[in-house]
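Because discrete structure vocabularies remain unfamiliar, we first show an illustrative case, written as a sequence plus integers encoding its fold.
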Amino acid sequence: MTSASIRPRLSTRPVAWLRGRFRSSEAWFIALAIVVGTVAGLLSVVQSTLAHGLQVVLFGLTFDDRLSAAVAISPWRLAWLPFGGLLLGGLGQLLGRLRTQPVVDVVEANALHGGRMSLRGSLVICVQTLISNGFGASVGLEAAYAQAGGGVASALGRRLRLRRSDLRTLVGAGAGAAIGAAFGAPLTGAFYAFEIVIGSYAPSMIAPVAAAALAAVLAARGLGSAPYSINIAVFHSPDAADFILYAGLGGLCAALGVALMLLVARGETLVRRLPVPAWLRPLAGGGVLALLAFLSPQTLSSGHGALHADLSGGVTLKLLLFVLLLKAAASIISLASGFRGGLFFASLFLGSLIGQIYARFAALIAIPIFLQPENAALVGMGAFATAVVGGPLTMSFLVLETTRDFGVAAATLAASLVASSIVRERFGYSFSTWRLHLRGETIRSARDVGWVRTLTAGRMMRTDVPTLSASATLAEFRRRFPLGAATRVVLIDDTERYAGILVTASAYADDLADGDSVGSLAVNREVTLTPEMNIEQVMQTFDTSETEDLPVVDDQGRVLGLLAEVYVVRRFAKELETVQQGLFGET
């Protein structure tokens, strides 16, 4: 054996040894999550610095300034918005020619693909988001943060061949760690992973996700990065009576959050109808955004700087309403025209405006309850972000880690739960799952349903199916299939298409003549399965047809196999048990 043939084997031994440790030891898996969290935190700092540095150069800011907090922007500098749209459109056109597979985000990856996502595709999303935010579009960087953290976790987990449940957990830990690093809030990052990226809580997930989030925050602090702090002073914790009004604020945020998501979808539909090539749509959107930014720079970027400016500047009610409408319009136009990003950061800003406006109107009503505008801004921020993004505990912990006031955090949780309940019942989607729904998907959270999609009738069917022509006689049937040879036989017509199922025992009834056609005894002639139907659809078909066996046929009606209800139910129970064992760390 040559040294060249030995070298590859030796190089794989450390990876194989690590793979065994990460698959068998919870402590080793936590250590892996810490590594992923550290990398995710560093990537968040790098992306934040690049985006803000781009804004500093393009819009003439100092490094301590925030774009949305600027008093005014020179009109000629606003021309960077359409230029950024042109750059983004050109990049999209180029990628459209090169890309072979669609890019999936962390929610879709965990819900449908068991945590598998492309590192190259994640890089594309990060670059597009950096261009969009850096050139001033009204989108946040959270899509880039989560995509980078989740992409690194997925690539590393696939290299180590982690189990499906462990890979999903690691992807959630990476995405949540990135968000936690951005805000300097580890609990927020951890619950972002649980509620939004993984879609569930389980004992096996708590330690790795929390460790990753904490590692990310510490890594970001180690680089001296300033997180997206929301420094709002709480002068008075909410009273018990205030919770009644804050529940109403949660309901208002739910209605406005659903309206915003529907308007984004409507805007995308209208933009697609414009007689403009797809790669020029961001250019047109950038031109409209420049006009809105000329009216108010608070429409630019994610709005983090504007959030603080509006809380500390004694802004009038009329101006709050004006900024709310402009910012909502800017966010809708940005996403509808093709700029890449999310609504997490923008929804925090919009929610703070809604909370302040709500408190101002409440003060005009003759009731013995006075809402502090600062408290209402925080509660509105959490409730509106919950309505749009999801995750009531995520947003409540964000407020708690920001203010360190349990009273305001409790009020935020109450309003967020109201908003979440209304949105789930009346709408059913968060912004990420709503956009997937518009593409034809049916998922409503990041809960793992990918195994349902992959477990199809074509994979489960028996292919050794006994068949016979439906025109054959009972004598021929009895000769070919004596009692005990087969319980059921699939009948086919002269064109070899499915014609029904014959139960063997029914062909041996005493009152039947040998010359009778077997086709007259066939049952279930109409209901069939197709090979691409998933196990959930198969079980529904069995339930509605009230039969024990169904054929799997192709587009021409030719029989491919046979599927029994008892086997499908047993297979579903087995797969569900495997998923449950993964959730509780028993695999």
